[in-house]
C-alpha cells in the first residue's frame, strides 16, 4: 500500500496575515470633509478656468470622445450646467468630493499596510495638506479625477496583494475602465504596476484568469471612446503626438524629479521618502514602491508633466504614516503625533496662496515668471472682462458689419468664454481651430463677414484676409499675468479665401 504524505499547509506571509487594526473612521472622515469644505469654500473666488470654459463647450457637444480627452469631464460639466446653470461652485463640487474621497483612501491604505489610528490620521493629513493635491481638486479637470482614480487603483492593488484574493482584479478593472473614460494616463499606472509585480517578486499574480476578466471589464467600459476615435481619424493619437513634441526635451526631463518636491510638498519629503523605503521593504506591498520608481524614471526620460505622479503619493503617504507610527511607538516613553501634525499643517498653510485662490485677485502675480508658478490660478482671471472687451470692439463696427461679425480665436479658452458670456452682449458663438473646436467646424461664420480675431498671428490671418488691422490687446483686471494677457485682437476684412477652404489649415492641437 502506497503511503500518502500530506504536505503541511503553506504558512501565510506574517505581514499579510496579521489582523488589520481598527478603522479610525471619525477622524479620517473629518479630515476628508475639512479638505472638501475648504475646496468648496474658495471655489467661487476669481472665476472659471480656461479649461472649464472648454469643458462647458464640450458639454454642449456631448460625444463619446474629444480630441484631447475622453467624455467623463464634459459629462460632469453637462451635469453641472443642467443642475445649477453651470455655476462655478457646481462645476467644482464633484472634484472636491473626489479629493475628500482620495484623502479617505490614504487612511485606508495606511490600515492595509498595518497602520493603526496614528498612521491613518497622519496619512490623511499628509494627503490633505499636499500642495499639488490641494490645487488639483480645486478645478473641474481630468487631472483631478485622474488623481483620484490612481489612488483608488493603488488601494485595490494593496487589497489584492495583502489578501491574495484574485477577484479584486474585477474591481481594479472596473476602476481602470472608468478612469480610461477620463484620461488615458491611467495606462501609465497599469504599466508601472505590471513592472512592479514582475520586479517586486509577485509576478504570479499576473497569471490569474481574474486579471483577464478585469481587463475585459475595462475594455468594455472604454470601448465607446475607442470607437469614437476610430471614427475621427484616431484624433487622440494625433493629440498625444502633438503634446509629446511640445513637452519633450531636455528641460522637462531635468525638471521632473526636482518638481516632485513641490508636487508632494517640501515639508513632506522625509515623510513620503521614508514611506517609499517602507514599501520597498514590504513583503507584499513592494510592487507599489517599484511602480513608483519605474514611473519616476519613465517620466524623467520622456519629460512628463510634474503632476503625472500625483496619484501615487497617497500610498507613499500611507506607508509614511505607518513608519512614523512605528517610530513613535518605539520611543520610551511612547510619543504622540502632535509635532508631526503641526509640521504638516504648517506646510499646508504655507502652500495655500500658491494652491488655492485665498489671496485677493489684485495680489496675483503680474510678471510671467511668478505667474507660471501656478498658471491655473491666473487662468481663472478676467474672462468676463475679456468678453466685454470683444463686445466693445464689435460695438464700434458699422451696424451692417456688426450684424454678421465672426469671432475667430486661436485658443479654446477665449472661444469658450465668448460662447459662455457672449450671449448677454449679442455676440455670436466663436469659431476656433484649437483642439475639438476645429472638429465642430466654422459655422456660424459667413464668408465675407468682418472677423474679429484673437490670439492669432497676423502672418496667418493675411492668408485669409486682405486687410488685418490691430484693434487692441487682451487686458486683465489689475494687470494680472495670464497666458492671454497682451494677445493681439485684430479686425479682418476683405476675405479672399472662404471658410470651407481655409478650415483645414486652421487646425492645431496643444
- Helicity range: 55-70%
> Which structural category fits the helices and strands?
mainly alpha
- Overall outline: globular
Chain-averaged pLDDT = 92
Report strand order across the widest sheet.
2-1-3-5-4
> H/E series, N to C?
HHHHHHHHHHHHHHHHHHHHHEHEHEHEEH
Radius of gyration: 26 Å
Distance between the termini: 77 Å
Largest sheet: 5 strands, mixed
Low-confidence stretches: 1-14
How many structural domains can be distinguished in the coordinates?
Answer: 2
Structure annotation, total helices: 25
Strand content: 5-15%
Query: What's the total number of strands?
Result: 5
Summarize the structure.
By secondary structure, this protein is mainly α. Helices cover 60% and strands 5% of the residues. The protein has 2 domains: 14-361, no CATH class; 383-506, no CATH class.
Question: What key phrases describe this protein's structure?
Answer:
five-stranded mixed beta sheet, 2 domains, 510 residues, 5 strands, mainly alpha, disordered N terminus, globular
